[in-house]
Design goal:
globular
Length: about 180
């Protein structure tokens, strides 16, 4: 799976990364890349982060690679949103778009790509990073206590998620 991230959107929405951006944009970008590289060590997804160079970027789009993360800086006069849309439209691969920007999310959804808000993505990744490394199996007694022995009788209309939401849920499980 290819995870496409709206870089500044994630930093500014994040509870943990926002404080680094207050120091400087560079500190915010470095903190984001370090955080994502820790995630990438656990999951081998291709990750691309796009940063906005709209006002003060280089004249041309720049690309970088750091700690297993692909980084794109949009050129001056080009918004990161436009780069994200271009990448989304130009590929048929499985993409998960991470942005709280409604325009970007709806664009990706219309093209059959899964989307997650920045806060949802941060929450999922933080839970994964906080999980114990030794992968101990849970106590079997706990599983028995959680088991519900009520009979399975269905009442009322089925509550099936839409196709887009089911696809998004499947991609979230891969995270």
């Amino acid at each position: 799976m290819h995870i496409l991230i709206d870089g500044y959107n994630l930093i500014r929405q994040s509870i943990n990364l926002r404080r680094f951006e207050r120091q400087s944009l560079e500190a915010g970008r470095k903190a984001l890349i370090a955080w994502l590289s820790e995630y990438r060590k656990m999951k081998d997804h291709r990750i691309t982060v796009v940063f906005d160079g709209w006002e003060s970027g280089q004249p041309q789009e720049e690309r970088d690679y750091s700690s297993g993360i692909h980084i794109i800086y949009s050129g001056r006069g080009v918004k990161a949103d436009d780069v994200l849309k271009r990448i989304t439209a130009s590929t048929d691969e499985e993409i998960l778009m991470v942005s709280s920007d409604r325009e970007i999310a709806s664009y990706a959804t219309r093209r059959g790509k899964a989307t997650l808000s920045s806060l949802e993505f941060e929450s999922i990744v933080d839970k994964l990073l906080a999980a114990p490394v030794d992968n101990e199996s849970p106590d079997p007694k706990d599983e028995d206590e959680e088991e519900d022995n009520r009979p399975m009788t269905k009442k009322g209309p089925a509550r099936k998620l839409s196709r887009a939401k089911r696809q998004t849920q499947a991609k979230i499980k891969k995270l």
